[in-house]
Amino acid sequence: MICPFCVLDCSLPVGERMGQWISHDLFVPHLVLHIDDIDDGKFCPVPSCGSTVFSKYGI
């Protein structure tokens, strides 16, 4: 599993952007950290979502 928030964050080094999570138990808490940082009305980090805006809990 690759974090969509990290992979699209150009401020991170490539190794961190492409980090893979092999355990669901570790991946979910990592995603929750990103989601907790989201303000309502942010764009989804996944390019296929386009310009769709989601709430913090809708993403």
Q: What is the total tally of β strands?
A: 2
Give the percentage of residues in beta strands.
Answer: 5-15%
The coarse silhouette is: globular
Largest sheet: 2 strands, antiparallel
> Which strand order does the major sheet show?
1-2
Please work out how many helical segments DSSP would assign.
3
Q: Please give the radius of gyration in angstroms.
A: 12 Å
| Mean pLDDT figure | 81
The end-to-end span amounts to: 17 Å
- Alpha-beta classification: mainly alpha
The low-pLDDT segments are none
Task: Tally the structural domains.
Answer: 1
Give the SSE string.
Answer: HHHEE
Proportion of residues in helical segments: 25-40%
Short précis:
The protein contains 3 helices and 2 strands.
Written description of the protein model:
With 59 residues, the chain is mainly α. The protein has one domain. The chain is built from three helices and two strands. It has a two-stranded antiparallel ribbon with strand order 1-2. The longest helix has 13 residues. It starts with a helix and ends in a 5-residue tail after the last strand. The model has no long low-confidence stretch (mean pLDDT 81).
